[in-house]
């Protein structure tokens, strides 16, 4: 009979040792305002609603047209030599300079998506350019997708009767990040070319 109280005490100590510490303010706040409490051991937010406990993932999906839904085209081989990701690598941009160039392109595309009905996500195919394109205006080439992943086509410049899978998103050359234009000029100089973006 003495053995049963010993088990009860041991079980109580085990529960205390494995409990996630929550101070009184957090506990009252969660119950009163139904706000999430971060549980360190499971890397999740615990939302308490009365007696119900729900675990919610700490990362919510980005809303449609958000820059988190915009990626840079990657690829291997000669056909992908000028893809956006490879072009970023070739410019030797690193750290905050690369991030600034990436964010500039994403924001321009996100703004274009806000004026494109049904736009949900995008893939930037080519960074801002006019060299090597039939379109003489500085533009970013991107494919825009709806929420099901289908391509939203755009009318071709100069012939709106033809629909293209790639959008030409025009950019003011003077608005381009300084790091980007300088990196393009350096790359062209190394290759014995000039002309800028």
From TrEMBL:
Keyword vocabulary terms for this entry: Signal
Protein name: Uncharacterized protein
Entry keyword annotation includes Signal: yes
Biological classification of the source: Eukaryota, Fungi, Dikarya, Basidiomycota, Agaricomycotina
Extent of the signal sequence: 1-19
Keyword Signal attached: yes
Organism in which the protein naturally occurs: Psilocybe cubensis (Psychedelic mushroom)
């Amino acid at each position: 009979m003495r053995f049963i109280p010993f088990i009860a005490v041991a079980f109580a100590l085990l529960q205390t040792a494995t409990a996630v510490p929550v101070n009184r303010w957090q506990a009252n706040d969660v119950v009163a305002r139904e706000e999430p409490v971060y549980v360190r051991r499971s890397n999740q937010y615990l939302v308490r609603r009365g007696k119900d406990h729900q675990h919610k993932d700490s990362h919510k999906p980005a809303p449609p047209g958000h820059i988190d839904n915009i990626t840079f085209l990657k690829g291997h081989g000669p056909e992908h030599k000028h893809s956006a990701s490879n072009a970023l690598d070739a410019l030797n941009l690193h750290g905050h300079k690369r991030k600034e160039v990436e964010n500039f392109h994403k924001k321009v595309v996100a703004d274009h998506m806000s004026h494109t009905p049904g736009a949900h996500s995008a893939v930037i195919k080519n960074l801002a350019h006019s060299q090597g394109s039939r379109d003489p205006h500085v533009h970013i080439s991107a494919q825009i997708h709806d929420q099901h992943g289908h391509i939203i086509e755009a009318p071709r410049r100069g012939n709106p009767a033809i629909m293209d899978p790639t959008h030409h998103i025009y950019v003011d050359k003077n608005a381009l990040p300084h790091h980007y234009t300088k990196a393009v000029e350096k790359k062209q100089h190394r290759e014995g070319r000039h002309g800028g973006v």
